[in-house]
Amino acid sequence: MHSITIKRLAAAACFAALAGCAGMGGKNGTNGMQMPGKAPADAAVAATWYNPPSEFPGICLTQFKDGSLRFDGGFAFFNPGRWAYDAATSELRLQLAPTPSLELAHAQTVLHKNLLRVEAARNTLVYAVKADTQAIGLGGFVFYRDTPCPARRG
Hints:
Elements: H1 2-22, E1 45-51, E2 59-64, E3 68-72, E4 81-86, E5 91-95, H2 102-105, E6 115-119, E7 124-128, E8 135-138, E9 141-145
Antiparallel strand pairs: 1-2, 1-9, 2-3, 3-4, 4-5, 5-7, 6-7, 8-9
């Protein structure tokens, strides 16, 4: 009788522990890798930003849930990159591949939509991004949120 009770209690404790783990979101060390707003259809993607074609081909910025980011269609010189989002301050940090002109190109933060500051020593652009933020400015281009990026070729 005691053996059955102990087994049932052990099973209940295991279920409670598993339920607790499930409630943690399964981030596995990717704290902060969630973006506010609409979730993309691709489970590996945290967010996409797209600059539609005009004088230049369209440029896609994809933020992956593992903290990496990638540019397609342009700005490939910024690859590879990393990103982080701080929900407490609503700051999106894009750390880009070393580029000597990053600080110079973004010095006029007022011209770049939602750009708060440039941390040149870290090759990082810091943006104010909330759930209702529709666009960010990067390198003189406006990248729109929740605008699907075209399928990547090659």
